[in-house]
Each structure stands twice: as structure tokens, then as C-alpha cells.
Amino acid sequence: MPILIFIIILGGLILIHEFGHFIVAKRSGIRVDEFGIGFPPRLLRLFKKGETEYTINAIPFGGFVKIFGENPTDETRTEGSDKKRSFIHKSKMTQMAVIAAGIVFNVLIGWLLLSIIFAIGFPASVDLYPERTLENVGVTVLGVLESSPAARAGFKDGDVLKSIAVVGEGTRFPATSVKNVQEFISAHNEPLSIEIVRNREVKTIEVTPADGVVKDKHAIGVSMDEIGFLRFPVHEALWQGARLTYEYIGQIAVGLFSLIHQAIMGTADFSQVSGPVGIVGIVDDVSALGFLYILRFAAIISINLGILNLLPFPALDGGRLFFLLIEALCRKPLPPRFVIMANTVGFVLLIILMVAVTWKDIVAL
């Protein structure tokens, strides 16, 4: 199941990326010969509208768009009536817009997915949104310390504490805040009865606080926070989605360029880099948390794809933009053979990197 979710997410994001190239090329008057779902060989020709064929292909992973005159070697066949509709005969600004559109669409879809999360609503900490009124606020277990009394008693992440009492005593005290619960636990070293809600079922767990779990107090070994349900009106959700997208772009860019700098200096820690195998493992963990977390994961991956593609490296959109910038400054095209060779070498290096990271992930299993 995680593999299928990963394929759907990444394939869908690649398809959206290609749609960005497609729609801007169309709007710019460039001839688009084919928009394919999946990669060749072709399985089915859905229909043809104008000069564009829409196809289904055998490899169900993303898609592609065939733009007339995009390949540097296509110049010999772009003479004639469609010369003005060729990619290489458009202005440099238009060419850059077509290439950059894929990156822009990946960032936009990330923003849209994050905005959907804010509009649907999600669990949030009261401390993070002090100006908001959250629904169904409860003291929630965020982590259980290994080998602690709580772990032995069976507490799990996500448990919502409702009330607490000393075993054998009739009076139960409501779990109204983290401070309230912590003070009650630290004041007792006898068995406690804690009422929780897990998966909408009410359960009672008995646990005895111990010394040494937390310095200078009795504790059971859980981290807690006051979590409630938060949703925004659509217009605010769009703004919050944009704000978070901006934050993610900054974090991803800083992390990526830091990794590149460390790689150049020979100090990079590639154990933190994941390939497809490692990402499938992450998808497994995320999918267990629920649909909203899958949406957030997809948004982060989409923004990652956009930022990664912006790198001025051959075979990436950023590399193509870099070549177009050089051509604009020099006012003449780069030799087609050089562009093809650079993109080929860049593609091979990316494949080698992908294989190396995948092998690292497999070994880590």
C-alpha cells in the first residue's frame, strides 16, 4: 500500500509539473505535439485536439509533453509554416516562462494542498495558535519514553487524557491542562488510574509514577500537549497555506544548498538523504497517521520537486534556464551539441546519484 501511495503522489506531481510546461506553451502559441500520461511505449491514443495528441502510455509514472522545436537538434525541421510556433524561435522570455512553469506549478500545488488542510481542519497545539479558539481541546500524549512506566502500562501516542485518580479512591480529577496532569502525577507515587480516549473508545489505564524518569519528581514518562481541532475560513486558509509554503521553500532551499556546500567541502552526511526506498518507508509512517498527513507530505514533496528542479544543473529545468540566460546575455544560441552533451552528462550523474542513494536505503533496511 505505501508503494502505491508513493507512486500515485510522485506520479501525480510529475504530471502536474508537465502540465505546467504544457499550458504555458499552449498559451504562448507554441505547437505542442503530444501530452502523455505515463511514459512510452504508447498504449492508447485518447483523442487529438488541434495539433496535440493526448495519450496513455505503458509506464504509469507521471507524464511528458512533446513541445515542437524544444530539442536543440529540432531546428532543421522547424522551417516552413510552423516555424513561428516553434519553441526555439520564440523569445528568450517566452522560452524561460515555459521552462519555469513546471517549477511554478509544483509550488502552486504545494500551496493548494496546504490550504486545503487549513480549510478542512487539523489537530493543532493551543500554544501555536493562542489567538484562535480550538475545538475539542484535550491533553494529548505526543510521545512515550521507552521502558518508562507509561510504556509498560500501554500508553500510545495520540491518547487523550480525560481524568486521573488514585487507584482505590472514588474522586476523579479532570485532565484540564498539561500542568494540571503533571502536578497530580508528581504529587503521587502510588498506582494511578488514568482515563483516556483512544480511537474514540474510552479506556482506563493503571500506572505507577516512578523516580528517575524526570529529575526531582515522580513521572510516568510521557510528553503531552493541549491539542484541539482548528480550521480556517477559505480566504484565511489560502493565506495560511501561502505563509507555510513560503516557510517550507526557505527551509528546503537552506537545507539543499547546505548539503551541496557540505558535499563540495567533503563534510556532507548523506545518511540524511533518502531515495525512493527510504521515501516509501516515510509514506508508510505518514499514511498510518491519516489522510491529512498524506496531503501534507504530498505538499512538501511537491515543493521539494520545485526547488530541486530550480538548481542550475544540466538535465534539470534550472539548468535549461541557466543555458537560456547565457544565450540571452550572449545574444546567440549555444551549440546544440554542447547543450545535448551537457544534459546527457547531467542526466547520467543524476541517475548514478539516485542509484547510490537507493542502495544506501536498501542497506539501511
Task: Explain this structure.
This protein has helices at 2-27, 92-120, 149-153, 178-186, 234-265, 276-289, 291-309, 317-330, 336-364, and strands at 32-49, 52-67, 122-125, 135-144, 160-166, 173-174, 192-198, 201-207, 210-214, 217-219, 222-230. With 365 residues, it is of the alpha+beta class. It has two domains: 2-31 and 68-121 and 233-364, no CATH class; 125-230, Roll (Pdz3 Domain). The strands form three sheets. Strands 3, 4, 5, 6, 7, 8 and 11 form a seven-stranded antiparallel beta sheet that branches. Strand 7 and strand 8 (201-207) form a beta hairpin. The protein is elongated.
What share of the residues lie within helices? 40-55%
Q: What's the order of the H and E elements?
A: HEEHEEHEEHEEEEEHHHHH
Q: Could you say which overall geometry the principal axes of the C-alpha atoms support?
A: elongated
Q: How many strands, what sense, and barrel or not for the largest sheet?
A: 7 strands, antiparallel
Give the radius of gyration.
27 Å
The chain-level mean pLDDT equals: 85
> Structural class, from secondary structure content?
alpha+beta
How many alpha or pi helices? 9
Distance between the termini: 18 Å
The total strand number stands at 11
Low-confidence stretches: none
Proportion of residues in β-strands: 15-25%
Task: Quickly count the domains.
Answer: 2
